[in-house]
Amino acid sequence: MVALDALFHARSVALLGISADPKKMTGAPIEVLKQTGFAGKIYPVNPKYSEISGITCYASMDALPEQVDVALIMLAAARVPDAIRACARKGVKAAVVLSSGFEESAEGAQLALELARAAQETGVAVIGPNCEGVWSVRERVILTFGTAAKRSVLHYAPIAILSQSGAMAGALARHLQDSAVGCSYVVSVGNETVLTIADYLEWMIEQGDVRVVLLFIEGLRDGRRLLGLIERATARGMRVVTLKAGNSVEGLKAAASHTGKMASPYEVYRDLLDEAGAVQVHSLTSLLEAAEVLSLLPTPPARGELGGVSVFSIPGGTRAMTADSLEEHQVPLATFDRATVARLADALPEFGGTENPTDLTGQVLSHPGLFDKCLRIIAQDPHTEALIVQVANRGPRDVMERCELLASVAAHSAVPIVVSFLGDALPAADKARLREAGVVCARDPAEASRFLGWLYRARTMQSRLAFSPPTDLPAALTPLTWDETARFLQECGVGLPGWKVVGAQDDAALVCANLQYPVAVKAMPEDADHKTELGLVTLNVAQSDIAAQVDRIRSRAGKPQAAVLVQEMNKGGIEVLLSALRNPDFGPILAIGMGGTATELHHDLAYVSLPTHPDRVRRALSRLKLAKLLAGFRGAPAAEVEGLLDAATAIGARFVTATPAMSELEINPLFVHERASRKLTAVDALVKLA
Fold first, then answer.
1. What is the pTM of this model?
2. Of the residues 545, 568, 591, which one is the last residue of a structural domain?
3. Least trusted range by pLDDT, from 21-25, 244-248, 312-316
4. Is the residue at 89 inside a domain?
5. Could you tell me if 558 and 586 lie in one domain?
6. What are the strands, taking DSSP E only, across 138-291?
7. Domains identified in the chain, total number
8. Does a structural domain hold residue 250?
9. In the prediction, which pLDDT does 248 show?
10. Would 48 be classed as within a structural domain?
11. Cα separations (Å) of 679 from 33, 465, 637, 650?
């Protein structure tokens, strides 16, 4: 986007509503620009002053002597739409609106519409409103009132921050600057009245100076687009790290009151962000740690089935702990080559442990050169994809004395190296020295394993096959009657038990004479959604009782002339819930999980964006307890999983294109039978129109 180029590479800035008092929020931005070394032109705009901070102040945008790249607006909300038009007259490409009083308040909704209209009419890209501003570190374009930016030294790193919370954006930037890790861009996106968080991510993907993007999310308005951009970024080798807030009931309310966004349930965000390739964390601290780890350390090289993490460990007591933690984070342990084990055995005393994880004992510290020798032996093992250097109680001193050695090993091995302590936290200066050596430090084995888990996650996502949603999806008619529903399901590979419809004038016993008894008698799906709760289903009905039960269903429904559905009872199979629905944040999605009464009991569900592919459904399914049941739990025969994946994909494809549009199509339960039978059976389906 040309407008964002102008923003992040601005050579001139207008400050509308700037105050001469540097202690005020509206006075801070001009001091920040001067303190951080902005080399371009600054134009204060406020009719109250002739100059501010030694710089000529102008009464209006029209009074400025030349065209301006970017405007920072700090006016009352009601004045902002006209200010955007005034900016356009002066050639402004982008305006950062710090002002509040828009979507976050009920009375500001109309003003938000006026602001969006002004942006559309003028072509000015609006950042915010109700935001804390933006940073472009290399260009020293720091447009904010935030105290995090009040510094004369800025550290650069290929880390971008996109946050729906201004305070979180400032906190992340402050910590990354204070620790000397650094960052490249910071955007507090505010209410996203015009530009959304996806717009900034799309721009970041095209920049050559961004390796890691940190996303702080409360709720999304164009989540589907954001997912596609995360996939694109991941495919290009960028690492996108997300922290989602507002995951509990009260958290959802808090997020909505903060930004005017009511987010979907956390499980939907979790699964769809995972599918897109994001590395997900759950705290501000983890977000900062992930920024450091993923921006500094290389991707672990893939070295076959025996490849994984090699552990250079001085204390033996951490071996089991390290192995446990790596398994928890789905990180493989390397299997040492025989030559590696032999070389370690030659170097170490008999009581040392030469298998991975190692127990190198304190001897590596007592004998000069042994630390160096053993470290290089392990790093050079052909199966080493990453390295944990686990030190003991004098670890901080031992590590800092060997900083050059670690740098040499990191450079020659080209694998990520994490130094792990026994609860110690290094001073900032020592951590910075290790970063310069290409090494990250962790307080204990669990933290080291978590760090490597992020790297392995990034490797997995980057190496997966690209997925382009199909564009030639089959057109479908939304089923509105039972006959149409049955045909719809059969076209998707789902069978149904034998069934008959008993009309108002029909003899129930005669119509159903050829069915296999016992049967189920129920109201027609188009007449009632939740039949069990309404008492509109009777199971295991004998042939002699069929007429009475049909009459009972009609009476219960209050429809004496209604048609009634009679079905043969399903026999066996694993109960699965399969549902396609339209999510307010992400559009069409698929839910799959345990069906029947187990749906609410276990809440064992996974979500996938639609349209999809069987491999993506398989990956979602693999996270569930349901997967173990389908594979054949405790000697039970394996179920028809491939058919389930194909049916889920087909249902999703037809759901996306169906007319009239459906808001939901739910099959619960869908019975998945033994693999040998190649059968799926649905006894009911709930269809709701959008």
1. 0.92
2. 568
3. 244-248
4. yes
5. no
6. 141-143, 159-163, 185-188, 212-217, 239-244, 279-281
7. 4
8. no
9. 55
10. yes
11. 68, 30, 13, 15
